[in-house]
Design goal:
The protein has 81 residues and is α+β, with helices and mostly antiparallel strands. It has 1 helix and 3 strands. A hairpin with a 2-residue loop joins strand 1 and strand 2. The chain is globular and about 45 Å long.
Amino acid sequence: MKSVKKDHKTGIFTNVIWKEGKYFVAQCLNVDVSSFGKTYEEAVKNIQEAVELYMEDAPENSVNKIEMPSLSVTEIRHQYA
């Protein structure tokens, strides 16, 4: 019986990681996937695993190509009831 190899592609995914309370939150900018961890390193490991799991069944065109992202931090004031 012949084994069938899945065509694996490699890509670079851009992630943003920030501390929120006692956890580090990781958000992938190329696909709508996020994760978290108790440490920065754990958040990196967890977002990598989450993206890998997402990509197993993701359609070809589901990855947004982001070249040289320019990130800025801004605060907005919002009134709510």
